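Changelog entry: the Glycosyltransferase record was regenerated in this release. Current contents:
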Amino acid sequence: MTEKHHIAMMPSPGMGHFIPLIELAKQLVLCHEFLVTFIVPTVSPVPTALKTLLQNLPQGFRYPVHGKDLPEPMQNRNSDIYKVFLKHSERYRLADGLLINTFVDLEPEAIKSLQGGYDHQPGFPPIYPIGPLVQDGSSGGANGSECIKWLDDQARDSVLYVSFGSGGTLSQAQLIELALGLELSEQKFIWVLKSPDDKSARASFFSAQSNTDPFGFLPLGFLERTKERGLMVPSWAPQIEILSHGSSGGFLTHCGWNSTLESIVNGVPLIAWPLFAEQRTNALVLTDDLKVALRPKDDENGVVGREEIVKVVKGLMVGEEGDVIRDRMKLLKESAAKALSEDGTSTKAISELVVRLKNQ
Ligand code: UDP
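Regenerated structure tokens:
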């Protein structure tokens, strides 16, 4: 590489209250010659103090990150969003510190790098990994108690929870394949279903309650054929309660950062199915680095076929590989709890911040 390249990253304007900044560092496996940029979109609930940018991180990660795994806005250097990233990148070192919803055991090398690397390069803002922070209390709405009652009747670790976050949408063709794949897998599932959209994977972000009945898009006879094994939930389910229920044994997720952390906190292994924004990068971390997720392959049209879905669903829920992934996820769950305990790294990071603020 002869010139210095720039990379920009924008977090999903979804439900996240904190930003998974840490993925940026992972991207630098390839990119130690890159200037990395990070901005918070104005529509996001993320605090503006986190308008922070990353620059010149050292090497030292374990796996390569390919261009296709970078967030969408970074794929096109001619886009306006990309240019905004670059503009803000110049301000990275002006930040007084970064609060990150992660924890040291989850991403030790990335955190180290954000702190200036193993050779302690000067000039990096202090990093406060204070997670995993997840909501507590009910998130269920109208469908809450029905889901939990249904789970109460299922065997331990036997149910796959399927959800693409607050706004993720599949195409009609993909929805059909997923339905048939779930049916053919013969596993139990709870599926939070949104109406399909062939133009945009984030279609329901801006129309949280679709007026169309999503069940009308399912294959003919699907509901009847799967009624003993599957619970279909329109639009929204009590995700946190579902993931913390003992019957939940897997989560097919779009890899939003909140969903990722909620799964880790509850020790539920994953099928990584990213749709847009930074989700592909998160999926890469979950599969290649942490190895707590399986990732289905799509075909030349970008659709994941029913056979591939059967393969990953059975692989996770009843396969040997699934057992290994489940054990690994349980260890990660313990690490997460430890980070938040009295002497844990995240508790210490918050204390350090408090002391610093008091002294200012
Ligand atoms: N969520 C939920 N029920 C749903 C879908 C989502 O409670 O049916 C919650 C989920 O628990 C998480 C948030 O919405 O806290 C989704 O955030 P995430 O960062 O995973 O994805 P995003 O929606 O921002 O793409």
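The longest helix spans residues 320-339.
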